[in-house]
């Protein structure tokens, strides 16, 4: 049975359903790119575009998808997975230089002064722009660790984390240990300073 929607509701067993998975398409940014009215930059809010341009973009995407289903997937036994749809959609509506820019943004992402959980959230958000890197869990975990601030990275880089969850757990443990050490050190310094 063929898929006649944006993503197949008959997802393969080894893939999550489209509704549960972040397909890597930001509707606000994509709508502007599809309609040809926006640059696709994250500084533009979806509400800033006139209704008709977003509507036109949706119509254009609908026409494209209907055409794809008719011409490329005419055999009713073929399923269209979310991953395949995302790949096709990006190739059609998101210019390669924008894809490259977003991938570079992911590759240069570092923790800086934000918390580990904020960094992990940004990492997850930006990782959709580099699917070839995050497809392998070890590479994904390594990229996460390499983006941590130096004090954490140096304590974690020697370990071979198999998954991002494993790397995140180890990072949180090390961060707690470091915080505890700093608290104990400060308390010891306060006790050792004689009052004047």
From TrEMBL:
> Which residue intervals make up region (Disordered)?
1-48
Q: Where is the Retrotransposon gag domain?
A: 54-150
Entry-linked InterPro entries:
Retrotrans_gag_dom
**According to its UniProt record, what is one Pfam family this protein matches?**
Retrotrans_gag
Q: According to the UniProt entry, which residue ranges have a biased composition of type Polar residues?
A: 1-10
Going by the entry's taxonomy, the superkingdom of the source organism is recorded as: Eukaryota
Q: Where does the sequence pass through the membrane? A: none
Q: Where is the composition biased (Basic and acidic residues)?
A: 11-24
- Start-end of Low complexity biased regions: 30-48
Protein name as catalogued: Retrotransposon gag domain-containing protein
